[in-house]
Amino acid sequence: IRLLLDFTQQESHTTSPSLPTYRKRNYTMSSDPSSSTGSKFASVLNSAKKFNEKHQILEKTKKAGSDIAAKAKEFDEKHHVVEKTKAAGSSAAEKAKAFNEKHQVVEKTKAAGSSAVEKTKEFNEKHKVVEKNQSCGK
User: Which residues have CB under 8 Å from 8's CB, separation 6+?
Assistant: First the structure.
């Protein structure tokens, strides 16, 4: 649905009769898909196509992307970036695994979490915090 503002030309009563004046006439709602919105869209699309044909935007963009990909591949072949990145990631994962095995970080974290939950439950049972909060909200 779109809002159309309909202007109508009326005769000018100014000193310059060749210049028309405009007044607001009415507002109407239209859901007609074949209305001027479609033709405006087609006009914009046509303008964009003409602009692209004149300036070759799509072709230049594709070429730039292709050139960048080729340069990246060439850089990687020369400096082995992907290979080094994979090796560094793998090494970091192995070191993290060894650190966890030595210091049992995951197990200690799980135990601390479980302990905190249990202590919270015990505190609530002793002090009835949840029940007090619920009764305050009523």
Answer: 22, 23, 25
